[in-house]
Structures are given as C-alpha cells and as structure tokens.
Design goal:
about 35% helix, six-stranded mixed sheet, 10 helices, alpha/beta, about 300 residues
Length: about 300
C-alpha cells in the first residue's frame, strides 16, 4: 500500500470516527479495549504508536483492558500498556482485577463469576467426542484434557481427565475441535442444545463458555457503576464475536477493520484494521488529535 493511499484511508477512518466521538468531547470516559486483534496483532505484537496511545488515553480517561485471555495472559498486556492503576476484565468478563502498584503483584482480584460446567461438558462430549477441553478456575489456574494448551491460558495447564473437569468450579470453559471449521462447529453447538452458560465462537472451531449473563459488557457495566461514570461516556473497541455485547453496550462501539461482518453490524462505526493501527485512530479521536509520544524506559 502506498503512503498516499494509507493517508487517504486514515483520513476517511478519522472522519467516520469523528462523527461519533466528537460528541463525547469533554467527558471523562470509560474505554473498554479488546486485546488480540485490537491492541496487538495475532502474533502478539504491539506497535510503539499503540503503546503511546494507550498511555496517553490512560492518563486522561479510564482505560479498561477487556479480553477473553486469562489473568496470567492479560497482565503482560497491561504492563506493556503502562497502566498501573485502573481495571482489567479477563476471561470474557468472569474475572475483574484492579491494578494497584501497592498491591502484591501490582493487582488484586475484585470480582469473579463462576459456574458449574458439568452439564454443558457432558452434553458437548456426546456431540463432539474428539474435542479438547479446558477449565479456568477463579485463582487463574487451568486444567485441560490431554494435549490441550494455548497461549491465551497464560499458564501451563494441568492435564486432567474430562470427568474430573466436570467437577470443577469454573470461571471459563474452553472447547476446541481442531478438525472442524467454525461453521461446522457452530452447527454442532446449535444442535447440542447447550444451555445455562454464555458462549461465543471465535476465529477457529473454538468455544468459550462463562456463567449465565456474564460477558465483557456485564463486567464493564459493574466498573462503570462503581466509578460513577455516565453511560453516555463509554467507548469500546473490538474485533471478535466475544466483543459484540461490549460494542452494543458502549455509547460508541467501534469494530476493527478486519472484524467479521457480524461484528461490524453490531458496532456504531468501523476503524482501520489492527495492521493499520486502527485503535490508535480511535484513541486519537478520543483525545482530540495526534497522541504525543509518552513512552518511558
């Protein structure tokens, strides 16, 4: 892509964003930001421009990292963003932590929402016998069936038989079927009749389940209410189907340029892709212009 094309594209994105963000000028905002595909690319890389924009926004507004990642995989992103005070929402809303440099490890868990996964796992075993399963517990630990490990866990999973996983108290359950496409997996889930939990299917044949009614949006609403921030002063940015509730909840919901059409349909506006630093454009719009470099050593 040529420099002139990039400039034109970014100008168009800024104009689209300004139509929605300009009305928030002067408000102390709550900004919910997804991680993968929003703050970092799918190789886990965060650009210097993104880091500066995050720190600039966090110095003026309440920035909340809101991710499907576990606590252990979320904290390095918060650290990279230089956010030492505030909140992070992990495990798709099931775990909320408050960042505090005076707390042990620089954070404390302030809310967890757990559920019993046994019925759902028994049902899924019948329709997807070759699936891999993992259960995240409230303390940030992971237990999984043989051979299942993912970077989003943030820790090494303890190999555990499926029958034993069914007995655990979970904040998040992950189901992965490597041999199915997302479309095939969606059909399997629909036919399974799984109920009593919330779930979203990601980029691959991947299912995340949480307690009923729990999502990134539900956790952000608790934080918003706790801080006394007006509902009209909320912004959210994301690119996945587990972001749709958050985008609908926010006064201004922004989908990333590479997001699936179903995610874009829920959003108020679409920014550029992660590879064009689309979130930087959103934060520039929130701050009323280019973000000054504030990177520290």
């Amino acid at each position: 892509m040529s420099a002139s094309t990039t400039t034109t594209d970014q100008t168009a994105a800024r104009e689209r964003l300004a139509e929605h963000l300009d009305r928030l000028d002067g408000e102390a905002l709550l900004i919910g930001l997804d991680v993968d595909g929003t703050l970092v690319d799918h190789d886990g890389r965060m650009t210097p421009e993104m880091r500066d924009a995050l720190r600039g926004a966090a110095s003026t507004h309440t920035v909340v990292i809101a991710t499907g990642r576990s606590l252990g995989a979320t904290l390095p992103i918060v650290e990279a963003a230089g956010i030492t005070r505030g909140y992070a929402v992990c495990s798709n809303g099931a775990v909320t932590v408050e960042m505090d440099p005076e707390a042990e490890g620089g954070h404390r868990i302030v809310d967890t929402r757990s559920f019993q996964p046994g019925h759902a796992l028994r049902t899924l075993r019948e329709v997807a016998p070759d699936a891999h399963y993992a259960v995240e517990t409230a303390d940030g630990g992971f237990h999984s069936t043989a051979g299942f490990q993912d970077a989003s866990f943030g820790v090494e999973a303890t190999e555990t038989a499926l029958d034993d996983l069914m007995e655990l108290e979970a904040v998040r359950v992950v189901v992965h079927v490597p041999d199915l496409s997302p479309q095939e997996f969606s059909k399997v889930i629909a036919e399974s009749g799984v109920h009593g939990v919330e779930y979203s299917i990601g980029w691959t044949a991947w299912l995340d389940m949480a307690a009923p009614g729990i999502s990134k949006a539900s956790a952000l609403e608790v934080i918003r209410d706790r801080l006394g921030i007006e509902r009209r002063a909320t912004v959210a940015v994301g690119d996945g189907f587990n972001d749709t509730e958050m985008l609908a909840w926010a006064e201004v919901g922004v989908a990333m340029g590479q997001a699936p059409q179903g995610v874009k349909d829920v959003a108020d506006v679409v920014t550029d892709s992660i590879y064009e630093d689309g979130t930087v454009l959103v934060l520039e719009g929130v701050l009323g212009g280019a973000v000054p470099a504030v990177t520290s050593s």
